[in-house]
Amino acid sequence: MDIQTLTNLPVFLWLIWLPLLWSPVIYLVGRLARRRLAVDTAVSRWAALIAILSTWLPFALTWQEFKANGVLSYTFGTITLRLDGLSLLLATAVLALSTLVILYSNTYMHGELGESKYYAMLVAMSGVMVGLGCAADIFNLWLWFEAMAITSYLLVAFYRDQPASLEAGIKYLVQSAVGSVFVLLGVALVLAQTGTLDIVQIQAHVAAQPDSLALLVAGGLFIVGFGVKIAIVPMHTWLPDAHSQAPSGISAMLSGVVIEAGLIALLRALAPLAGTASTWGILLIFFGVLNMILGNLLALRQQQVKRLLAFSSIAHVGYMLIGLGTAVYFGEVAGAEGSFFHLLSHTMMKGLAFLSAGALLYVMHTARGDHDPLTIADLAGTAQKYPLIALVFSIALLGLGGLPPLVGFMSKWQILVAGFETRNLIMIGVVAFVALNSVLSLAYYAPMVNAVYRKRPSTAVQSGLTMPTLMTIPLVVLAAGVILVGFWPSLVNGLVQPAGAALMAAFGG
Amino acid sequence: MSAWLIILTIGLAWLGAVCVWLAGDKRPRAQHTLAVLFSVAAGLAALALIPNTSDQAVINLNAGSVFGRFTFVPDGLGVFLAVVATVIGCLAVIFSVEYMRGEAQLGRYYALVLLFIGSMAGLVLAGSLFLMFIFWEMTALCSYALISFYNDDPKAVRGGIKALIITQFGGIGLLVGTLAAYAYLGDYQISTLLAQAQTLPPGVLSFIAFTFLLAAMAKSAQVPFHTWLPDAMEAPTPVSALIHAATMVNAGVYLLARFYPAFAEVTGWKTAVLIIGLLTALLAALMAVVATDLKRVLAYSTVSQLGYMVYAIGVGGVFASQFHLLSHAIFKALLFLGAGAVIHAVGTRDMRQMGGLRKQTPVVSTVFIIGAAALAGLPIFNGFWSKELILESGLEGGPIWAYAGMVLGAGITAFYTFRMVWLVFFGQPQGKTHVHDAGAPMQTALIPLALGTLTSWLLIGWFGNWLQATLPYEHLHVAGTGEMLLAIITAPATYLALAVVALGLAAWWQRDRLTGLGRSLQGFGRAAANGFGFESLNQGAVNLTQKAAAALQLTQTGQLNWNVVGIVAALVVVLLVLAGAA
Q1: Distance in angstroms (rounded) separating the CA atoms of residues A67 and A61
Q2: What digits encode the pLDDT tens for the residues B385-411?
Q3: B550: how many CB neighbours lie within 10 A of its CB?
Q4: Bridge partners, residue B293, by sequence
Q5: Phi then psi for A135, rounded to 5 degrees?
């Protein structure tokens, strides 16, 4: 491949390659620096920041090209990579959150054992997720999905001397592997039945021959297989442990983008099979209802902040599934747009929540050397010492609870509108149930806001260290986003509408 | 012009919130000053809207896709309530300068109060159902945050979360009603719903009517959603005066009045509204009779008076309800702020530890008695005129048994009002003997309200005609001031009501002679003290939820084997569903 071919490559490929190329460099540079310069220079964290910032250039170019020319694609041998609205949505979310998390981890992960591996894996995971979004055939999709899983195992089980962390890692690994096997079985079934792996060709085959037991089973396998990563109830059991034991930046990534990447992978794999049954949407709505009620009720019982936020993520996946189910079953575009809007708003709000909780965990526990989790009791009086963190944390929580004028309200509203536009009595009941769940969730978000603004600080707050400034920058950026997009929801139209259109097209709507 | 005034009314309040927050808790004097300045400015902007009303949307922003157009309509009903919110808001802020002196976290307090004032003004001026819902939710947020302002007091936190959950639960009614209107009409504009209500399928219109009623019931603390208001008394008293007496709780009444033209013809709607109003008015009045916490008496009284306003709408007296809303906002704010001054001086809310305060607090006792007289419905205070108007509407437009109940309620109101005034200001001092009167900031807030209580009824004719001018869908029964006042004075029903009020006053005065009657009603009194079982219903719902959550916790076994079983089980279920559907 000569320079000419290289420069003629579509720019969106660089979105995938660049982080993947940087990843081993970050690791090597980090390890070599530690060996040569005896002092802990943590070069890898700056290398990682440079890596992710450099990825913004191809991103900007990709954005321009997509807006000008529509879907971008590139074929290499038998593998096609295609960037459509859905891919762009995922890429934006991944890149934005990774940049903020890398900046955040600069202080948070400083001095930890295996820091270079952390940054290498994090950057690699970002590239891999963009690749997942661009996959055009189901086996390639599975490969990127697996790659994402592998990079995330190491990140979840990062604190390898903490038994709880290892336990969470093992559970995540085994359950994720079970899911992956199911997906692979599904891929095999599809290949056996249709003779092809390409999504467009599968769709054509299904259009010609919709009745097929094998494809039906494959679809079921996809839902359950990808469902483990998406934390669909009852495949969600790994999530609370993984989210609470992982370093806070990774918790933010897991809730903010990894779950969503799994969701997009499911949509990609299921779309060509849509013609085989009319019940796919109903299944999604059904699981959505389960997720909401279980996530909200179990979050009510939690005393550890990060565990509570993990269960809250399960509930929010429920909202997204209901919107998507409405779109798939009833053909309501608003459902798809609402779910994708909620995907973005959840990335912002949950990312903010985990990062602020992590910041408090850092100053109150981790930086002082103990490995205790952050509890709601620890939050008491946070505003006395850390007013900015208290404010942004409250913004995240109230946004997650769906209170205007924050972004969580706007995205939930769009999903609810879609449900009502179906004019279907059961959907109206589901919408009322969603609203009820939103109110229920306030019962566990509000007490944390109350705790944060108490006058009498907890012992943890009293003995807490100073908040490093670099850690607060990503928090302020996310909080600004939550408020801004809450006031002007049309700011994200450029991302959400193409994604919604791509989904409806893929499902043959 | 109106567009700018609306922007200023809401914007100045919100800007004030940000400025007070930025001033920081280390500069309380700056915070007090900024809060007063911005709230007064917002009040002036709202007052300037009075001559600039219109029934057309003056602001029209396209929010895109499913969010519709954000519009503001400065019609009479909206401007009236915006003025009430901002003017009483600024009086409450002025009162807070003394009441909250030396308190911590003032930034949060004033920011939330100002955020609330702006949101309330926005709620009533919004021309889009979606925008109205947004402000509705924002007022609920501010209310919750201010009730639980003293976060270290578990009662306050509980009260705040209770208020949040109950009003949000009711808010679901407004949410689904709005969604239904949008799904069937294609846009969120209130004017569209009012104009095209009759074109909707009857089932849909009924659905919207009753879900809106649900939301109004929760927001205005009507039975059975009234349980949050008494517990909301944990809030600092200026907040109770502003939010839980004069403004936010009126949002439900506003909703009913606003959409009355659309829902009046829906089968059973008006009857439901009047029954809810009647029940609330009576039950809350009875609960006030046995309460010993001064603010709780006022809270129950608010619930009861809101019941009067809701009843008025149910019998078609929309103007009567709004006129009483005006009177009530003024005299109830007066009573709450007066109570705040008393509580601030005495240090307790328990009336059994007060008594004989009249001599030491001449200003406070005078204004409080004025407010109480208005509440009891004594002529010539504003409460008398508006309550009589409601009762007359009830006689004309509603069933006679409901009318009788409301008259009885007036008597009970007089009874508990007299009881309250007596226990606090007369009789033998039970507690602290050395009590100070209200200072300058408190008096600055109290005296205008007292004057308002004495004179606001004179506006009846002007007010009615001004309202009617910009409400094309409403048909208010209004005339000139003289005519309306004469109608009230010459109606025999007025004297019947006055007689019952006199009976109520006499009952307290002669309570020693009525001990027999008192004893026989003791069981009833105990039921009233327990909120007639509604508190237990509340607690039951909470317990049920906690039990469900505890039961579900068993699914999180922590064991990998069970987790994998879960995955496989899910696959089985999915395949079965697919097979069943195929």
Answers
A1: 10
A2: 999 999 999 998 889 999 999 999 999
A3: 13
A4: B350
A5: -65, 135
Q: Which of B546, B566, B577 is closest, CB to CB, to A234? A: B566
Distance CA A348, CA B116 (A): 26
Interatomic CA distance for residues A62 and A320, integer angstroms = 27
Exposed/middle/buried for B100, CB within 10 Å: 0-12, 13-18, 19+? buried
Q: For A386-402, write each residue's pLDDT tens digit.
A: 999 999 999 999 999 99
In this prediction the pTM is 0.93
Burial class (CB in 10 A: 0-12, 13-18, 19+), B195: middle
pLDDT at B379 over 70: yes
pLDDT 10s digits, B409-447: 999 999 999 999 999 998 888 776 677 888 888 888 899
| pLDDT at residue A38, rounded to an integer | 55
Residues forming beta bridges with residue B69, ordered by sequence position: B62
Q: Confidence class of residue B500 from pLDDT cuts 50, 70 and 90?
A: confident
How confident is the model at residue B529, as a pLDDT? 76
The answer to whether residue B490 scores a pLDDT higher than 80 is yes
Return the DSSP state at A467. Answer: P
Q: Are B329 and B317 in contact (CB under 8 A)?
A: no
Question: Cα distance from A366 to chain B (closest Cα, Å)?
Answer: 25
Give the closest of A178, A383, A420 to B179, CB-based.
A420
Which residues of chain A, if any, have pLDDT below 50? none
- Decide if A216 contacts B578 (C-beta within 8 A): yes
Mutate which of A332, A450, A484, A485 to disrupt the B interface (most B C-beta within 10 Å)? A450
Phi, psi of A111 (to 5 degrees): 85, -5
Which residues from B are below 8 Å from A217, CB to CB?
A: 575, 578
Provide the pLDDT for residue A325.
Answer: 95
Task: Give Cβ neighbours of residue A81 (< 8 Å, ≥ 6 apart).
Answer: A12, A13, A16, A73, A74, A75, A131, A134, A135, A136, A140
Residues of chain B with C-beta less than 8 angstroms from the C-beta of A227: 570
3-state secondary structure string across B264-290: CCCCCHHHHHHHHHHHHHHHHHHHHHH
Contact call for residues B38 and B115 (beta carbons, < 8 A) = no
A227 neighbors A265 (Cβ within 8 angstroms): no
Helices (H), A209-247: 213-230, 239-245
CA B205 vs CA A430, B174, B199: distances in Å: 20, 13, 9
Would you state the structure tokens that stand for residue B421, as one six-digit string? 């005034």
- The residue type found at B397 is G
* DSSP-assigned beta bridge partners for residue B70: B61
Q: Are strands A79-83 and A72-76 parallel, antiparallel or unpaired?
A: antiparallel
B546 touches chain A (CB under 8 A): yes
Q: Do residue A414 and residue B555 have CB atoms under 8 angstroms apart?
A: no
Tokens at residue A486, please? 């809450």
**CB-based burial of residue B43 (10 Å sphere; 0-12 exposed, 13-18 middle, 19+ buried)?**
buried
Residue B286: closest CA among B275, B274, B273, B297: B297
